[in-house]
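Q: My labmate handed me this sequence with no annotations at all. I'd like to see what the chain might look like in three dimensions before we decide whether it's worth expressing. Could you predict it?
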Amino acid sequence: MSELFTAKPYLVAILAGAAAQIIKVLSFLIVEKRVNYKRFVQPDGSPNMHCSALSALTVYVGFMDGFGTMTFALSLCLTLMIVVDTLNVKQAHSQQQEVVLILLDRWQPKHEAWVRSRKALSYTRMDVLSGTALGIVLTLLVI
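A: Here is what I predict for the chain of 143 residues:
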């Protein structure tokens, strides 16, 4: 069992995900001049943690097992699905949020308990691209 968590593929993915979250906290500190520890666990923002971790894992598998192997193909397919889903989350979240707000307004209009922020998740192409690039670069540094 200890081999499971000391294997390099896991460590590379965890390192890339942690690096993405640390970069989010540091960028918030630089811009806002204050520390926001919630950024460690918030999924939105740049670089995207999911894309960073999975791209790191995929590149590592490619270099270690070979880019023509079934393991790499499986890892690549899963990474691409996560990247596409991440890009679609913002649009789906915005649409669902609008419908819920309309329903809540009809059910109990102007009730202060139902006042909600209209800010959607901020997954952008740059978030996904920067996360993917971070994962690839970190993997190349580790190898």
